[in-house]
Amino acid sequence: MEYLSHSEEETEAIAAELSRHVRAGNVIAFRGGLGMGKTAFVRGLARGLGYPGRVTSPTFTIVNEYEGGRLPLFHFDLYRLNGAGELLDLGWDEYQERGGVCAVEWSEQAPELFGRGTMRVTLERGPDGDASRRVTIANPEEGAPG
Questions:
Q1: Which domains are assigned to the chain?
Q2: Rounded percentage of the chain residues whose pLDDT exceeds 90
Q3: Which helix (H) or strand (E) is 122 found in, with range?
Q4: H or E element, residue 44
Q5: pLDDT for 15-25, tens place per residue?
Q6: Within 10 A of 74 (CB to CB), how many other CB atoms are there?
Q7: Which among 114, 98, 95, 117 has a CA at the least distance from the CA of 106?
Q8: Is the pLDDT confidence value at 3 over 80?
Q9: Structure confidence at residue 142 (pLDDT)
Q10: 15 touches 105 (CB < 8 A)
Q11: Alpha-carbon separation of residue 85 from 66, 112, 113, 124, 137 (angstroms)
């Protein structure tokens, strides 16, 4: 599935729609350069799940937990990690077992952890350059709207 977003609000709305279809245990792996809207997407996902609080990038904390909605949302940022081993050391397996959704920015830092069943969201510049983003969601059979 592919969408074209012209603003952070549109990116959040796409994610909020996706949130209606995610289930406990889903992993969403994000790819996209700096400033492409990964955190905006997670913010929309959190809103769609019913989380009322502030959603920020976990660049320095590695993971932020958002609870209080339909499902817990665990928001990871792997930008500062050097591979899957560091994520495993932080308790990746335990987060997956907690019955929430794991949203992972910079998933390319540990690609071996995101295999079959992982929903993949790629955000890149759209045809209008800085003014738009192309949002591609792969593995729709694992929870994306259809």
A1: 24-127 (3.40.50.300)
A2: 73
A3: strand 119-126
A4: helix 38-48
A5: 999 999 999 99
A6: 23
A7: 114
A8: yes
A9: 45
A10: no
A11: 24, 10, 10, 28, 26
